[in-house]
Amino acid sequence: STVTQFLQSFKLMNDNENGALRKFYNVIMDNGGEVLTDISNLGEITILAPSNDAWAAKSVENNLGNREKVRSILNMHIIKGKLNVAQIHQKNAKMIAQVPTVNDRTFLYFNIRNENGEDVITVEGGGVNATVLQADVAQTNGYVHIIDKVLGIPYTTVLEKLETDPMMSDTFKLGQFSDFNNQLNNTKRRFTYFVPRDKAWQKTKLDYPSTHKKLFMEDFSYHSRSILERHLVIADKVYTMNDLVAMTAESGDSVLLPTYRDSLKVKVEEEAGRYVITWNFKKINVYRPDVECTNGIIHVIDYPMLEERDVVVNGG
Predict the structure, then answer these.
(1) Minimum mean pLDDT among 57-71, 218-232, 300-314: which range?
(2) Which of 84, 118, 282, 294 is the most exposed place for a label (fewest CB within 10 A)?
(3) Could you tell me the pTM of the whole model?
(4) Structural domains of the chain ordered from first start
């Protein structure tokens, strides 16, 4: 059968039957069924289908009444073309695999780790990390992978996201040195955090070897904290990339964003289909925009807002 026919096979199933994707199908139909029509028209396709239990989460149920939001969430689970486990392995050979979805400018990030001799595949989308429960359910025109969470509805704080995301481990480590991370669990605040991915910090090792070495030593936690504070915007709202682009256009120049000690002066623009931040005359690409969390939003960037003079140690 096709992927569409496979999903339709859950139509008449109830809680007492083995309808693994019954709730996924019901959510599609409760929102008008247009998504199913889109799936039928796409030809080759891959679906990341949340299990029935995934839809029962309280945070998910609270969003099901918003039709526009649900449509966006469902589209985040759909990939054009066939993508099976073997291809995910291939894409992950050198880096975390980034795969576009039919939801505009939204990517999924696949990661593979080994546990007790078995590969565990995780997928991140819209701030949510899900585990693949059953992979490669093959159909004539694509694949269905059953996952344990609904993507796009955050359930972790900024701190919890940093701690669990394999792309942000170095920034998490730096924040642990100086207790900087503790504040990121505060759900009464709204954070916009520009997080350099691990590869970004590796670039600074080549550009500023001495500075990089000091930053990752606990004795220099004061310096690492000061640098991280520059990346953390604290306000009564979060700033999406679209917000920052609009603010830049309105001002005609850079915008000032409130940080812990001072303010961050940046210009945010779109170039060739991606977001670019200009800071201190440096252009920094945004690798993953708008990673939502329960108390803020994370923008993963390709280079830290860092100068070599940021880590200066006086003698004597």
Answers:
(1) 300-314
(2) 118
(3) 0.83
(4) 3-147 (2.30.180.10), 158-301 (2.30.180.10)
